Amino acid sequence: MSQPTIDVIAIGNAIVDVMAPAEDADIERLGLAKGGMTLVDPERAHELYEAMGPAREISGGSAANTLAGLAALGAKCAFIGQVADDQLGEVFAHDIRAGGIAYATPSRAGEPATARCLIFVTPDGQRTMNTFLGASQFLPAEALDEEAIRAAKVLYLEGYLWDPEEPRKAMRRAIEAARNAGREVAFTLSDAFVISRHGDDFRAMIEAGEIDILFANEHELAALTGIEDFHEGIAHLGGKVPTVVVTRSEKGAHAVRGAEHAHVPAEAVDMVVDTTGAGDLFAAGFLFGHTRGMELEECLKLGAICAAEIISHYGARPEADLKDLVAAKAE
């Protein structure tokens, strides 16, 4: 088996985030589910955009955010995701390549437009996401760079993208390519709503041994296992998946790898500004440590440092130098 030349290759939604501050009254007036993620059609996306205050646009997408963190830490990364041949598609492609991430998926002509996520951020830092998936849900299996998948230590898959049929088929093919090459497959559950729709798929993949590293938060863990007690739930999954990583917001994070169990507290922050991307950047830190053979607790610590940086400002891409942050914490 050849040596990997890429640390992590990810498949996910290619989305541009549009973020604006909002009050709780705005969330209620617009009929939004505070703190959640709702899929919207083009008409609803337009209505919500019109209702937003001054906004910032920045490339996002869960798996792409994770790669941005990994690349900032020094990992070699590649991304597979579908944009349209339009202005936001150009913005996304520019941003991800500017971050040092290889991206070669051809853009898609015609409608629908490039995906966008309209994010309302309330004063408590909670983000309410409304996602128009657009072109991202039409990623065909033919667009996969299977040579790059076989060359990566870890294939990282975004649960959000499991919902539409075409990219689901692409991800199944990617899993097969990675496993045939002896590589690891990491999967993030993304959201409880994804589990409510595709939990049977995920449980079948786990039983078949197709997932090596599973990322979840405590609510997703309960939704997947049907077990309300956190410790019982993670122990249940730990008997089926080689490495299970579960975040618990201010309670820190846990991981189980075989008989090994580790926990780290959340990193202290002066103020929680925006929780967008916290889980994505936690995964970045953990995977960086994992691909470098670090101990389980060290991987969790890196994840906590990266998550703390993200929640201290607007947006889901790091603004501080993650390498410097990690070095400072190690002193």
Description:
This protein has 331 residues and is an alpha/beta fold. The chain has a single domain (6-330), classed as Ribokinase (UDP-N-acetylmuramoyl-L-alanine:D-glutamate ligase), CATH 3.40.1190. The protein is built from twelve helices and 14 strands. It has helices spanning 24-29, 42-51, 62-73, 87-98, 146-151, 165-180, 192-207, 218-225, 230-238, 278-291, 296-311, 322-330, and strands spanning 6-11, 15-21, 37-39, 56-60, 77-80, 102-103, 115-121, 127-132, 152-158, 184-188, 213-217, 243-247, 253-257, 260-264. The protein has a nine-stranded mixed beta sheet, sandwiched between helices. The radius of gyration is 18 Å and the shape is globular.
Give a brief rundown of this model.
The chain has 331 residues and is of the alpha/beta class. Helices cover 40% and strands 22% of the residues. The chain has helices spanning 24-29, 42-51, 62-73, 87-98, 146-151, 165-180, 192-207, 218-225, 230-238, 278-291, 296-311, 322-330; strands at 6-11, 15-21, 37-39, 56-60, 77-80, 102-103, 115-121, 127-132, 152-158, 184-188, 213-217, 243-247, 253-257, 260-264.
List keywords for this structure.
331 residues; alpha/beta; UDP-N-acetylmuramoyl-L-alanine:D-glutamate ligase; nine-stranded mixed sheet; five-stranded mixed sheet; 12 helices
Fold blueprint:
Elements: E1 6-11, E2 15-21, H1 24-29, E3 37-39, H2 42-51, E4 56-60, H3 62-73, E5 77-80, H4 87-98, E6 102-103, E7 115-121, E8 127-132, H5 146-151, E9 152-158, H6 165-180, E10 184-188, H7 192-207, E11 213-217, H8 218-225, H9 230-238, E12 243-247, E13 253-257, E14 260-264, H10 278-291, H11 296-311, H12 322-330
Parallel strand pairs: 1-5, 1-9, 2-7, 3-8, 5-6, 9-10, 10-11, 11-12
Antiparallel strand pairs: 2-4, 7-8, 12-13, 13-14
